[in-house]
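REVIEWER CHECKLIST
Item 1: Sequence provided? yes
Item 2: Single chain? yes
Item 3: Sequence as submitted:
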Amino acid sequence: MTELPDGWSVRRPTLDDAPAILQLVHASDIAAVGYPDYSPEEVREALTEPNTDMARDCWVALDAGGRIVGWTYPGNATGASRDFIEVYVWPTDGLPAMRPLLELMLARVAERKAEFGHETYEVRAGAVPTETAWIDLLTEHGFGFLKQNARMQISLDGVSATPPEPPAGVLIRNVRPDDEAEMRAFHSVIEQAFLDSDHRALPYDAWRKQASALDEWFVAEADGEVAGVLESSFDSDQGNDEGWVKRLAVLGAYRKRGLGEALLRRAFATYAGKGRAKAGLGVDMANPTRAARLYLAVGMKPLYEANIYQKII
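Item 4: Structure as written out by the authors:
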């Protein structure tokens, strides 16, 4: 590992570090895109996701004063042949930790490849185009550009709390969180709908444990079955005025029938009714379902794009 400056160190994180980690990520976000774009919920998920062990897979970097100035972790909840890695550093002050953290993570990923029993392994990482130092470091370590994701948003100014009627034969309603069969059907739609995309799958039990904001989860029923779903995400930051669409999925047989738009309109109406000023989501621009077209059609606009880089080991 490349040496850190005198007095700096690395250690394993704990959940007690979550507030300091969130401050770090927010500082990184502000430098890259102009505003914080990460929630306390996402920090907890990253540290506790299946197949991510804080004691083996994650590191934080500390400067000479003991401040957390860097954080790295992998993501591969199912043990498939792909890890998505993240390295965050404090702008300017934390740059000396970027290379050591990436080197630690790449060494750990090689071990995870063997532990998961794969002969070849794909490693992915993301970078906003303004993060030139990070992109240069990824390129130096053998990563190549793969595709782009986009962060999209829509203003809810003037949006009624009463959603428009869905297409004929389609019922849009709240999920029934106490109905185990329905929750499993909800999860199944997500996994089936994203088979042909870059979706990071989660086993049902792990997904269920992460569930929040269930009063903002919606089901599209068609032909007597759960054909589409929308999962919102709760941001526990006080004062947050954005409703977040974490996942929107429609089964292939029911696409191009207006279910996706009807689910979005229901979510937008719900967010507006709660006083949210805007709604947002992330989209894989290479998604073969061309989901970005739907989001543009309902009035969402891209705030920024993030490059995805890939390395095979």
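Item 5: Key structural point noted by reviewer: The chain has two domains: 9-142, 152-305.
Item 6: Recommendation: ____
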